[in-house]
Amino acid sequence: EGHAAQLVPDLGDQAPSVDAGDDGVAEAGEVVQLVGQAADSDSPSLRYEWVQVSGPTVTLTDANSPTPSFVAPSLPQASEVTFELRVSDGTNVRTDVVTFQVQGYVV
Description:
Layout: E1 17-19, E2 24-27, E3 31-33, E4 37-39, E5 47-54, E6 69-71, E7 79-88, E8 93-103
Parallel strand pairs: 2-8
Antiparallel strand pairs: 1-4, 3-6, 5-7, 7-8
């Protein structure tokens, strides 16, 4: 008697899991470190890209790393700065966002 072969479906290349980190609060002028994480069981090489999607314009240092930083802007009122983390495994892209509430300065 033969044994029935079990077919395991080929799920193809799976998209990476992505976490842009926890939302936070920053003081004006403070250096803020973003902490992104990603994993992909079938692709050891991942490409990171951080993009600012809202808020007063800031400059990201090392925007193609998991952990870039920016200086919180000095503004007279509180504002939010939101970033999107895009991670690619060469085939699939996944995204996540993180928002920082930047405290306004006191005049």
